[in-house]
Amino acid sequence: MFFKNYLLKEKLKHSSYFIWKSQNKSIKAIKNFKPLDLNLIIGVDSQKEILFKNTISFSNGNFTNNALLWGARGNGKSSLIKSVFHKIVNTNKNLKLIQLNKNNIFDIEYIYSILGNYIQYRFIIFIDDLSFEKIDSDYKIIKSTLDGSIQHQPTNILLYVSSNRRHLMPRDMIDNERSSAIHTDESVEEKISLSDRFGLWIGFHKLSQVDYLNIIKAYCHHYKINYDEEIRKKAIQWSLQRGNRTGRTAWQYILNIASSENLKIKI
Description:
By secondary structure, the protein is of the alpha/beta class. The chain has two domains: about 1-205, P-loop containing nucleotide triphosphate hydrolases (Rossmann fold); about 210-260. The protein is about 50% helix and about 15% strand. It is built from ten helices and seven strands. The chain has a seven-stranded mixed beta sheet, sandwiched between helices. Helix 4 (about 110-115) links the parallel strand 4 and strand 5 (about 120-125). Helix 2 packs across helix 3 (about 75-90) and helix 6 (about 170-180) runs antiparallel to helix 7 (about 185-195). The longest helix has 15 residues, at about 45-60. The protein starts with a helix and ends in a 7-residue tail after the last helix.
């Protein structure tokens, strides 16, 4: 036990970004962590400001809210969490980010029992793309685990969760409950009570064409690609072919330009 505690102390001392390894109940330090430059996350200025202020406050030792980032795929929910963390950790090395796979969410109480003892650090537990597809035994167990863990969360640990759904479940699951339940309000409230545990709901919605093109412009400027009318037209065509306008679509278009013009893109 002493040896394990020593190893954990050394990891926390020398690294800032980790992935939780459920097999041996430990954290793995990630080297060369290079998230997207925060200035390149465009079209979500209000979301960026809210999450940045919340994270700064937490890193300074204040009580802050768990955050649920929800909304359209590919618009920077996960990237924003990592980029905000990366910017803040440059000035506060006591802040740590631990990514927890949603399939290992049952470990969260164990994680709390370990990391809650390291009060000199502030931990953000990041769960990416969390959602429930149907009401079954797994859903009830996971909900009970996460819901209970939020209530008994150590003050030096914060939860940041991304999801494509505001209530972490499909709309039709809620609608079906309303149409079939005997005590409709009580049953629906029970289903959505987990998302209510997050003090911050930060929504991400579909980008306008203006925002989409502004992202393309920012990438071009950052990677020294000449933005002209041809690139603008092809960027729009690219989004139409993909069937969406998102930050991810914009990034994929930039990679396509780099590939066709033999440019080296470094993240």
